[in-house]
Amino acid sequence: MQQLEILHKRNLFIYYSLLLSIAAYFIILLIGIIEYRYYYPHFAVLSIIFLGLLFYLKISPRIIQVALLTFWNFNIIFLVIQSNLLIPYYWFVFFILLSTVYQSIFINIFISLLSFIEISLLYKYFYEPMSITAPQLTKMYASYLLLVCLIGILQTLYIKKLWKRVETANLERERELTSTEAYLQLFFEQAGDAIAVFDLDDKIITVNPAFESLYGWSKEECIGNSLPLVPAKNVDAAQDRLQRLMRGERFNLFETEDMKKDGTIFDAQISLDPIYNRHNEMIALSVISRDISYIKENERLKMQSEKLKLAGEIAAGVAHEIRNPMTVISGFVQMINADSNSPYKRYTEIIQSEIDRIDIIISEFLVLSRPQLGSFKELNMHDIVNEMVTFFKIECQNRNIELSKRAKDVYAVINGNENQIKQVFINIMKNAIEAIDRNGKISISLYTESGYVFIHLKDTGIGIPQQMLERIFEPFYTTKSKGTGLGMMITNKIIQDHGGKITIQSQENIGTEILIKIPILN
Questions:
Q1: Distance of CA 434 to the CA centre of its chain
Q2: How do strand 377-380 and strand 413-416 relate by DSSP bridges?
Q3: Least confident window among 81-95, 135-149, 373-387
Q4: Helical H segments across 339-417, by residue range
Q5: pTM for this structure?
């Protein structure tokens, strides 16, 4: 659009030059320097009207450019044929100089060659020497020089004004661009979200400091390279998004998983957009991403808290109502069991066993609903661990499981509920023993660090599949045929109530590692 606007202004200059030249011709005609010929004045007037009509109708500037040069050329040819003088031949030189306004080498060469051919043909077939007086010749040359000077001055003023306007516009544009680019650069460098710009070959053009911090790649490592930012399992989906981006689609706040330099996979929220130039051509792709792992973790904890709350409400509202009738049933079953001659003794023993199991489940439910803060006291974790090792030692020996304990002689006193802490160890030790069929190992280590007591338990059992490990703290989720799905949930709640944290890592057919940390009592 800017080039067409400049061409339009140059066309106007050529048009006004033609108008001024024809006006000068009529002035010379009125003075009597040259004789009136019928056809040229009419052609000149028609040229001005026709070209003015093209401007009025807003025809394409390129078409007007061709029309202007054509009519200028024909006006000179008709003037030469009509006058039969040498002076009009100089108009070809003026026409060549005038065409330089377009600043086109092609136009200049073409006009120069065409003028040379036309001058040669016109001089050969139409020029006839004729007598002319010195005053007439002087007036003709003076008129020609005056017109050339006027048009030269006009062209100089026009070009000067045009250049001044262009320089002013360029300066303003430079200031604006400098200011805009400075703000954009500050935004790019200081943005909290990771920003990267990719070329159409999926190679990185630039990244901001937040990208380096999030993904672990330095700017020098990124630029010009295609980095593995997507986990292997998501590569196909990423390629599909790239193809859709190349077709002009956009992705706003899309949740996926990305990968850091060290291979760590994290939850990410990304926005993908194509970048276009002023000609609406796609030149690059932008990626804005942020780590939302903490949001996902908060959502998971909130959901888990809601489940715990629901389980607690169920426990508080139902456990008491269940226990009362179960106590009556249990009493009568025990009376029947006391009769050794009862034909139903085998069945009543099964009933009593299931009643005991229901009682265990109810007890676990009540852990979720009972406030335990009032029963906290000082506990030495060395004593707790030693007691648990002694408690499970016989069972491990019966299963040919090697049970070992390693504890540093350090201060490891916490503020906690003894029964609950023991319940935690019972739950995880039972799970470890059940995970080992025969001839396995269980090791327990205790140490302190940064104000926490750490208890690390490792077994060589069958391990836990990844999809199950992600849901291990959910209520009622279990893989055991006789499990309640409450043991690990209660374990996690007890540790959280003590201000601690439990983490589990497991590999199938290799084993499981559990790390518990609880704040040390100052």
A1: 47
A2: antiparallel
A3: 135-149
A4: 345-369, 381-398
A5: 0.41
